[in-house]
Design a protein that fits this description.
CATH topology: Rossmann fold
Largest sheet: 5 strands, parallel
InterPro entries: HAD-like_sf (IPR036412), HAD_sf (IPR023214)
Number of domains: 1
CATH class: Alpha Beta
Helix content: 25-40%
Strand content: 5-15%
CATH superfamily: HAD superfamily/HAD-like
Shape: globular
Distance between the termini: 41 Å
Oligomer: single chain
Protein name: Hydrolase
Structural class: alpha/beta
Number of strands: 5
C-alpha cells in the first residue's frame, strides 16, 4: 500500500479562487483526490485559510467526498511550538502558486502516476509543463529572458 503524503492547497487548486468565499470546484478536483486516496495517498489540506473560512473549506470537501489525513499540519494533532518551523512534511505539494501556475487535475494525476510507474519518487512540487500550457511571459521571465 502507498503511504505517500500529498499537501493540497484549497483556493485556486481545489476550487476557483474566490477567497474568502468558496469558488466552484475545479474540473476533476474531487474525482482525482478520491482516486489518489483509493490508491493509498494521504491527503493534507494545506491552505492559508483559518477559523471559520477554514472550517467552511473542510466541510465543503467533506460534502464532496474528501476527508483529509490532516489540515495545515503533517499529521492530525500535531502541535507547533513557537520555535518550531510551520513547514509540513509531504512528498508532493499541489498548489496554484507553483511557478508557472496550476496545470490542472488531469495532468497532476498523470505526473503522480508516472512517478509511481517509473519509480521516480521524491519531495518536489508538481512541475508545470510548458508544452501543454501557453501563458503570458511573467515579469521574471521577461527580466531574465527565459
Amino acid at each position: 500500500m502507498n503511504n505517500k503524503i500529498i499537501a493540497i492547497d484549497f483556493d485556486g487548486t481545489i476550487v476557483e479562487d474566490n477567497y474568502p468565499e468558496i469558488g466552484r470546484p475545479l474540473l476533476f478536483a474531487f474525482e482525482t483526490m478520491q482516486k489518489l486516496q483509493s490508491k493509498g495517498y494521504r491527503l493534507i489540506l494545506w491552505t492559508y485559510r483559518s477559523g471559520k473560512a477554514l472550517e467552511e473549506a473542510i466541510e465543503f470537501c467533506r460534502k464532496n467526498g474528501i476527508e483529509f489525513y490532516s489540515v495545515n499540519s503533517s499529521y492530525e494533532g500535531e502541535v507547533f511550538e513557537e520555535s518550531q518551523s510551520r513547514k509540513i512534511n509531504a512528498d508532493y505539494f499541489i498548489d496554484d502558486r507553483n511557478l508557472g501556475g496550476f496545470p490542472g487535475w488531469g495532468e497532476v494525476y498523470q505526473i503522480i502516476k508516472e512517478k509511481i510507474e517509473f519509480g521516480i519518487e521524491g519531495r518536489q512540487i508538481i512541475p508545470y509543463s510548458k508544452k501543454k500550457h501557453r501563458r503570458k511571459k511573467s515579469f521574471l521571465s521577461k527580466l531574465f529572458g527565459s
